[in-house]
Amino acid sequence: MKFKVATQSTSGIKDYFIQLLKRNISYREFCALDDVSFDVSKGEVVGIIGTNGSGKSTILKIVSGALRPTSGKVEVDRKKVQLLTLGTGFDMELTGRENVYLNGAIIGYSKAFLDEHYDEIVKFAELEDFMDEKVKNYSSGMVSRLGFAIATAGDAAEILILDEVLSVGDEFFRKKSLKRVKEMIHGGSTVLMVSHGMGTIRDNCSKVVWIEKGKLRMVGKPEVVCKAYQHMNEVDSSDNAPKKISEVS
Fold first, then answer.
1. Which Pfam families match (predicted)?
2. 232 and 109 housed in the same domain
């Protein structure tokens, strides 16, 4: 999967188009994923791990159909796919109430569904007193809680894709959200999930895919792959640690 990245920075969309018309914009090619291939069987819960920028979310977007790969192919019935990611489609100038309907529509919920589940969404997000406030005045935790409550309001699809949906809120809310996600992923769906929490991956996944810098590093049992991944991070941390004076010659 390759992207074109502008080599010049611009101050905004207006400036970008001005520079584009002046032909002052040049691009470099960035390879986000390079020859990554793996299988997911029906009913499997597959975790995808890797350091930031390794291509994990890109994989999920390709599988869900949000991105089209520049090479290779994905064999999946996208009518059965549901991608859950927090805060997608939020308009900070709208109220929490308005964003429930905007974000819900983007996910694919009907207005009738949102009308029926509105109170449940608000209660789960713990935002009963703030729904008529503009989202730009919310804390990041409040935005995340609302995004999670909207994203998980419906029944789980046959193929469920979770992009860091558990990194949300305080400890109490994380426990509550983890319980809801466990109910979804263990209800018979085929699941692809990205998480930096190795405990979450070990406890819920039957297989783990490790992507590093756009390349497939390892596929296997959670305990084996997670251990190898954590070992790499420990080695990297050790190599980057400041040296003691006695170690410097």
1. ABC_tran
2. no
